From TrEMBL:
One of its GO terms (molecular function) is hydrolase activity. This is Isothiocyanate resistance protein SaxB, isochorismatase family. Residues 6-155 form the Isochorismatase-like domain. It holds the Pfam family Isochorismatase. Keywords: Hydrolase. The keyword Hydrolase applies.
């Protein structure tokens, strides 16, 4: 079996109902992510935490040094688990995520986090482009309603479209329970 690594993307306070960018289903996604993190720790699978911050201090969201950018307590890193701070949507861009994965001998990636249509999407596609097999745990990810050209797309549809795209051409998409049961 290939060495797996778990990437936990942007499960930060900003996405909670009390944050500036609340996501649909974030509490359930975080609870599922916490289960996967606990399983990874028990099996000595390395866990990599991604935290988004904007590069400038005057942004309305993900402002450095605020409570909003902190990782939610339910999925907070422990011990020497790496926390990779990113300033872009893609967790690999201008970070040492690839080097961290290589240092830990990771050959296959499991992804959970937020937002399904942005940072999760960018990380999945970049990881696959780098040659990593990827599994996304769909119920440990969350997103929000989107609007374009007068059309509002409900979060559930945005999320389903992203998961369908991943499954179609990028990797495995499964539920938290199915993933944990198969281990």
């Amino acid at each position: 079996m290939k060495q797996r690594g778990l990437i936990v993307i942007d499960l930060q306070n900003e996405y909670l109902p009390s944050g500036n960018l609340p996501l649909s289903g974030i509490e359930a996604a975080t609870a599922n992510a916490a289960r996967v993190i606990a399983d990874a720790r028990a099996k000595r699978i390395p866990v990599f935490h991604i935290r988004h911050e904007v590069a400038s201090g005057d942004a309305p969201i993900f402002k450095p040094g605020t409570h909003a950018v902190e990782i939610q307590p339910a999925v907070a890193p422990v011990g020497d688990e790496p926390v990779i701070v990113k300033n872009h949507i893609n967790a690999f861009r201008d970070t040492d995520l690839r080097q961290q994965l290589d240092t830990h001998g990771v050959e296959e990636i499991i992804i959970v986090g937020a937002m399904s249509h942005m940072c999760v999407d960018a990380c999945v596609r970049a990881a696959v482009d780098m040659g990593y097999p990827v599994t996304v745990l769909h119920d440990a990810c969350a997103t929000l309603d989107l609007s374009f050209d007068g059309v509002t797309v409900p979060a559930a549809h945005v999320h389903a479209a992203m998961m369908a795209a991943f499954e179609f051409g990028y990797g495995t998409v499964t539920s938290t329970q199915s993933y944990l049961t198969a281990q």
